[in-house]
Design goal:
single chain, alpha/beta, CBS-domain, 2 domains, three-stranded mixed beta sheet, 6 strands, 19% helix
C-alpha cells in the first residue's frame, strides 16, 4: 500500500493573516508546534504559506546570539554576524544559515 498525504496530514490548519507581525507568527508556530502556517485572506481563503525555512530565528542567551534560517545570498551572512556583534553584551554569534546563492564563490577564469 502506498502512503498518501491524507495518512500524514494534520487535521487542523494553523493560519495567520498577512497583517500578523513577525512576533505573532513565531508565537503561533511555537504554540501549535508547527513548522509552517497558512496565510489566509479576509474570507479565510489560503493566499500563501510561511515555513521555518522562510524565517531567520534569532535567540540571545548569556551573551550568545544564535541565528538559524535561510538567506538569499551567502554574502548576507557576514553582515548578519557583524550586526549581532554590535549588540551590547554579545560575546559570540553562532550561525546556522543556509543560502540560495553562493555569491562569494570564486568563478574560474574563462579559457578562450
Amino acid at each position: 500500500m502506498t502512503l498518501q498525504v491524507k495518512d500524514v496530514m494534520g487535521l487542523v490548519a494553523i493560519a495567520v493573516r498577512p497583517e500578523a507581525t513577525f512576533a505573532e507568527l513565531v508565537t503561533t508556530m511555537r504554540r501549535y508546534k508547527v513548522g509552517a502556517v497558512a496565510v489566509i485572506d479576509e474570507e479565510g481563503r489560503p493566499i500563501g504559506m510561511v515555513s521555518e525555512d522562510d524565517l531567520l530565528l534569532i535567540a540571545v542567551d548569556a551573551g550568545v546570539v544564535r541565528v538559524r534560517g535561510r538567506l538569499a545570498r551567502r554574502s548576507q551572512i557576514a553582515r548578519l554576524v557583524e550586526a549581532g556583534r554590535r549588540i551590547e553584551g554579545v560575546i559570540e554569534v553562532e550561525v546556522d544559515i543556509a543560502y540560495e546563492q553562493d555569491d562569494l564563490a570564486k568563478t574560474p577564469p574563462l579559457r578562450v
